Input
Amino acid sequence: MKIAVAGAGKLGIKITEMLLSGDHSVTVIDKDNDILQKLSAVFDIMTVEGNAKQISLLRSLDIGTFDFLIATTDRDEKNIVIAAFAKRLGCGKVIARIRDPEHSGQQDFIKESMHIDFLVNPEFAVTQEIYKYLVEKYSISNGVISTGKTAMIEFMSERLPDIIGKPIRDIPSMIGHAIVVAISRNGKVIIPHGDVVVLEEDVLYMVGDRDLIRHLNKKVHEKGKYTDIRKVMIAGGGKVGLYLARLLSDFGIAVKIIETDRQRCQYLSANLENVLILHGDATDITLLEDEGFGETDAFVSATGYDEENLLLALMAKQRGVEDVIAKISRESYYGLIESMGIDMVMNPVDISAGYMLRIIQGSELIVLSKLIQGQAELIEFIADENMMLADKPISELGLPNDLIIASIHRGNNVIIPTGDTEIEEGDRVLIFCLLSEVNDLEKLLRFRKGLFR
Output
């Protein structure tokens, strides 16, 4: 496909990298020539220096011949205008990144009036994942995803005490025709190998035959059970803090927000009901303790600084807060997370880029895409004989450690693959991978003569 990306910030660069893994032709537009030169040195892309709001620039690109334009500049209004102009000039489909809470309640009107196909809000996407975790206690509805004759279940290891202390390779013999595809441990989702031992408080993700998984679900989930969470403290009154406080308050949870900027506090007070807004420094331990830091049921660190979010999350864990969630933008910090015991870590850039990628791929290739705890993705697709991964033993595909082919639905059979298994034309293939491995996933899904027929 021919795709234009307007804006070479974090999200623009991330989606560009993902798209190139899928063998698309990508053009990046930005006003900063230094950034464009750096991108050109790393990626095989076309770069255009200039303002994508200028109709003359879009026409010079012949934007009407492009399949997609993605607007990811630092301003909502600019993204909306760029996307609207590109659509009017004949671009196939357009996507605009928006972040302002004032736009969240009028997205349908914006899309309809400006002829924009898709709006993506990174902060709201993160907020939804945090809300699901806090309120439902698991990130997939009712704990189970079903697709065809295959299903995936998510459950706490303590619900099946017999598997605690056992290596992953032994679990299928104890449960049946299923496989553990991932574990969420101390806030980090990992793809385990056979020697990994199940620990108490692990969250397991298991894929297998639908009937088996449904039977297992009756053992490990209590129907309709929700969290007993009553008090939540949020550090940072930015967009994530605002969205989350509104959702939690509407659910009936007592919420406190700590924000350093006085004007922002006034804005929050004017736009939130039944939420306590505190003006102060969230790293001030005296303030936190005075406000019942250690007695809160959940703590969410969502300031604009990764280092501060990690520090606050660690402090919360040390004081025994049950659920601790941190918003982190730098992947380089992920190695610290497992040892810190943080329950959940969210990266708005990864979540948004993955969502945009699935929009671009459309229904021709992907039949299911589900985000798991904001760190991993469950993908199901229909195999084609021209795909790079077809007609080869799985052991020869060179799969990265953080990507696993979980199951293959072939005819009336569900196959839990081994290294000798080959993917055939028409198979429904279920893959579980970390968001960090999405680039490798796109390479596997690529057709030998391009990603799409």
In short: DSSP finds 16 helices and 22 strands in the chain. The longest helix spans residues 348-365. The CA atoms of residues 148 and 409 lie 8 Å apart.
